[in-house]
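[Meeting: bench + compute handoff]

Bench side (C.D.) handed over the final construct sequence. Compute side (W.E.) agreed to return the predicted structure before the next meeting so the bench team could plan truncations. Sequence as handed over:
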Amino acid sequence: MNETVSYTPEEVAKILKISRFTVYEMIKRGDLPAYHIGRKVRVESPDLENYIKISKGTGMVSSPNEFTSPVQTSPLDGIILCGQDIILDILTRHLERQMPHVPFLRNHSGSLDGLLALYRGTANAVTTHLWDSDTDSYNIPYIRRILPGHRTVIINLAYRQEGFYVANGNPKAIQGWEDLTRPEVKFVNREPGSGARVLLDEKLRLLGIDHQSIQGYQDEEMSHLAVASSVARGMADVGIGIEKAALQVQGIDFVPLQKERYDLVIRKEDTAKPPFQALLSILKSASFHNEIAGMGGYDLSATGKIIAET
């Protein structure tokens, strides 16, 4: 038997310079042939080469019947989990341990993009920490607007502190939102759609601050750790993010500004399915709570509790 090179979705993602989530979507749609070995997905080299040729307009489109080992399970038979916090890495590991034959995929998107993915059906469990200035509350107003008419269940993951990352000793004495407008202060922002960016923009609106007066407002990073690292390396004087990242990066201090509620949102219709029952059970388990508590930076007083249903 001639050996054919096969790739994991992660390796395909690196070759094509796209995300792993996109690769799984291509497989789910049937654009890229793949097969299972146990719960592992593999893509053979000739199929990947043919996909690239088709994309260039030079390949042959084959009938689905020509592929003798199609993927038997769509990723949506399991859970596609949107969010960036390390809590979700731990949650995914617990899920994989409890249900080893079910696919659990991560998509590292921000809060608004996650809710849109839930609405469009490209994800089925998303995290959000979006502050609404009109009601001084988190998440529910956005869920109602972005998923109109859809019944959802909102479960708390943790409470976190949002604040400023500053250099050790806070040499520029940055304490509040107005300090971002000082000409000697350089800011580093988060990307649009992230909870931190929404919080910043809402606060600026309430205070009547034009974002154009903030030096560095257009400079964006894609994670709390990346923002904290920019401050630690002297690329910026201040950035916005959660306290946990400040505990992970040397050379910075944290200025707390607001306690936020970090929630998980799923569709009501999914709650009875075994993977989601496992998820809810894990969120309430002592082993999960102990692992998160050991990292510091989180308030777990409501973790696993249903906050609301819409």
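W.E. noted at the follow-up: Residues 86-98 form the longest helix (13 residues). C.D. will use this when planning the next construct.
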